[in-house]
Amino acid sequence: MIRDRGRIGSDGIASATRRRRPPCLESRIAEHRRFARPLKGHGMISETTRSTTSSLPGVEEMDEPGPPLILASTSPRRRALLAESGFEFEVDAADIDESALLGEQPVEHAIRLALTKARVVAKRREAGLVIGADTIVIADGEILGKPGDADEARSMLLRLRGRRHLVITGVAVVDASSGASASAAEYTGVWMRDFTVPDLEAYIASGDPFDKAGGYGIQSQSFSPVSRLQGSACNVIGLPVALVRALLLRPPR
After folding, report:
1. Share of the chain above pLDDT 70, in %
2. pLDDT at residue 81, rounded to an integer
3. What is the pLDDT of residue 1?
4. Given phi > 0 = left and psi -120 to 50 = alpha, else beta, which region is 210?
5. Averaged pLDDT of the chain
6. Is the pLDDT of residue 249 over 90?
7. pLDDT of residue 65
8. 154: how many CB neighbours lie within 10 A of its CB?
9. Which residues are bridge partners to 141 per DSSP?
10. CA 132 to CA 10: how far, in whole Å?
11. Rounded-to-integer distance, Cα 231 and Cα 193, Å
12. How far is CA 235 from CA 87, 101, 143, 240, in A?
């Protein structure tokens, strides 16, 4: 189990007295454009909202222990975001086919994969709230996955260079005891900087692009791919924590 300075409350969300926030959770005004799909009796989580991360729901008030929280991902970035936000959780990854279905829209794809990951892990558990997530990059209406080799990484990054693209993360929470679920997705507009070819080649040689959708990590200090964001940086890293909180505050039932 991964532990931080918090524990899960009776409604499934962690409590903590003081916690270190990851950089993308520092208090600031941000536009969060979310698409939420009602599932199994759950209504819309949110529409386009304007909020400060300092006014997120008060997890400090949750005292009673509740069901375990399980992250259905081995992504070190998602693990770090969740732990640094004060959650205590286990990791139990799901190995699934991430191919897009014929005619599937990007947001539907991201939410379906997040739900599938969470449900696969939930079936192995008697109890707990399972978080599944899937992040995709959209350019010209096309889903860009993880590059398979240097040539594909180069092609993706040159396609994104100096342009705006969209990052979508689907998030799902599944109650292992009942199978009930809730899901949503968050969007972030990303402008990639006009990097040089030597910068690109050095980044590819580092090996960093190959486990990331779109072939880049926003947190790379050497490459620094992004010039501007509209929305959540956590979303681009791989887990919109504010959206996770919103889903956990409306636990599946």
Report:
1. 73
2. 94
3. 41
4. alpha
5. 78
6. no
7. 65
8. 18
9. none
10. 20
11. 17
12. 17, 23, 16, 4
Per-residue pLDDT averaged across 53-71, rounded?
Answer: 54
Q: 134 an active-site residue?
A: yes
Written as six digits, the tokens of 172 are 């799902």
198-235 burial: b if 16+ Cβ within 10 Å, else e: ebbeebbeeebbeebbbbbbbbeeebebbeebebbbbb
State how far the Cα of 62 lies from the Cα of 80, in Å rounded to an integer. Answer: 22
**Predicted local confidence at residue 100, as pLDDT:** 84
Are the C-beta atoms of residues 216 and 209 closer than 8 Å to each other? Answer: yes
Residue in the block written with tokens 């947190």 = 219
Question: Of 134, 140, 199, 208, which residue is the catalytic one?
Answer: 134
69 close to 131: Cβ distance less than 8 angstroms: yes
Token pair for residue 228? 């501007």
Average pLDDT over residues 38-53: 30
pLDDT digits (tens, 9 = 90+) for 155-176: 999 999 999 999 999 999 999 9
> So what's the pLDDT on residue 99?
84
Token pair, residue 193, equals 């900087």
